[in-house]
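Morning - protoporphyrin IX containing FE inputs below, output right after.
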Amino acid sequence: MADSTSALALDKPRSPRRPAARRNNFELYSWVFMRISGLALVVLVLGHLFIMNILDGGVHRINFAFVAGRWSSPFWQFWDLSMLWLAQLHGGNGLRTIIDDYARKDNTRFWLKMLLYVAMAVILVLGTLVVFTFDPDIPAS
Amino acid sequence: MSTTASTAAEAGASDRAGASRRSGTFYRGDPGMWSWVLHRITGVLTFFFLFVHVLDTALVRVSPNAYDEVIETYKSPVVNLLEVALVGAVLYHALNGLRVILVDFWSKGPKYQRPMLWGIVGIWVVVMIPGTYFMLERTVSELFGGGH
Ligand code: HEM
């Protein structure tokens, strides 16, 4: 992209001016990760949706006491924590691909990715803290 | 089903033979393309929802009342409909994701990619009919049946 003259100039695939491929297998691992995490998410996410939205009155029975009941069990804490991390990394990695696909300028691509990574970090840290520090006896208001 | 075959070699050959877009030699406009478009849209939607959903759940660290108040809005009729849309989107993404995985790793996956697409559409419908019923049952009976 060093000497591109117009905004829409695109190199042909395999043209020699393209930067050499990075010398690591990050994209391969990310491809594999999308598939492995996808398999785990089938159980975690569809199970979550079935329990929370469909079973036994669905969302209508959810409130603080319901959450407190679930998170009193390490099993559901572990379930929710794994789901948080896998969904966030899977979805975030998917969005990274999408940004690479559609962002036309290096600058736009850079800032969109920064926004994405900050959002992912905020959600991962906040979500993890909430699961670990949940307090069923917190004052009502 | 003669339309399922679309290997690169055949596509190249029938391209030159002047095959039309409808005969399944082009990816563009093919159901395979739309299945990917939908996969992408549902993935992004789910990611954005997840962002909001972690924030609303984090209210349990503020106070039970703060959490209950926000969850109460999830029980309103309009949000209830959005809930059905979200579950439908995630279910499609999950089923199609499994199809993509089978196409990638199962030796017969590419050959059956199209029947598998109709298969997941079928499963989606069969799951969403009772699913929608259970998600909307309460809202509908409160709106039209005088509640219980
Ligand atoms: C429920 C089980 C899920 C399965 C089986 C699954 C499967 C997959 C697979 C296999 C891919 C890669 C597609 C490709 O390389 O062409 C993918 C992409 C993606 N997934 Fe998922 N996924 C699941 C859940 C989720 C969730 C919960 C989110 C959001 C947080 C999500 C967001 C995305 C995004 C944004 C992409 C990128 C789409 C693209 O590049 O077109 N997925 N999914």
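Note: Chain A has four helices and no strands.

O.
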